[in-house]
Amino acid sequence: MSLNTNASSTDLKQGRRRFLLRLSWTGLSLVFATFLSAVMRFFWPRVSSRPGRSVQVGFPDDYRPDQVVYHRGRKLFIARDEKGFLSFSARCTHLGCMVVWNRDHQMFLCPCHGGKYDAEGRNVEGPPPRPLDLLALRVDEYGFLVVNQDIIIKRGKGPAPRFRPGAA
Ligand code: FES
């Protein structure tokens, strides 16, 4: 009788031990999975869906010289200086995060991994492998400035080619 009680007490202890061991492994697995997902999110940041093709971005006179305007819905920038207009994709060329314009530093900065681009969108620091995409601009029949997000202007070694409304 007492032998039987000892045996059931040992079974109970072993069962409890097994349960605690399983619980520990489950907890460790959850911690590891959370850590792994945080690492994955760091290396593969969220990238928003591809925007539309040709978009009107207002009239040329809506932009002051030396102004950079972000069109949030289109994920692009329009920059105007004394030489003309430039349009940049806001998508970082590293892993696709949206860059922001920093007026004080006159740079586009990527918040994800510290990439930096100058005012013409050239990559100057950090992991981005190439400049921001320079998008084609034109003026449509209504006088609107239109960005074609499917046409990426080739850059040469010199300054980025400006679009000048009215110039052939
Ligand atoms: S996404 Fe990595 S630097 Fe911009």
Bound molecules: FE2/S2 (inorganic) cluster
CATH domain class of the largest domain: Mainly Beta
Mean pLDDT: 88
Number of strands: 10
User: Helices and strands: which structural class?
Assistant: alpha+beta
State the distance separating the first and last CA atoms.
105 Å
Coarse morphology? rod-shaped
What share of the residues lie within helices? 25-40%
Oligomer: single chain
What does this structure look like?
By secondary structure, the protein is of the alpha+beta class. The chain has two domains: 1-44; 54-152, Rieske [2Fe-2S] iron-sulphur domain (Rieske Iron-sulfur Protein, 3-layer Sandwich), CATH 2.102.10. The chain contains one helix and ten strands. It has one helix at residues 2-43, and strands spanning 54-56, 67-71, 76-81, 84-89, 100-102, 107-109, 116-117, 123-125, 135-139, 145-152. Strands 5-6-7-8 form a four-stranded antiparallel sheet, with no helix packed on it. The chain has a three-stranded antiparallel sheet with strand order 1-10-9, with no helix packed on it. A three-stranded antiparallel sheet has the order 2-3-4, with no helix packed on it. β7 and β8 (123-125) form a beta hairpin. The longest helix has 42 residues, at 2-43. The chain is rod-shaped, with a radius of gyration of 28 Å. The relative contact order is 0.14.
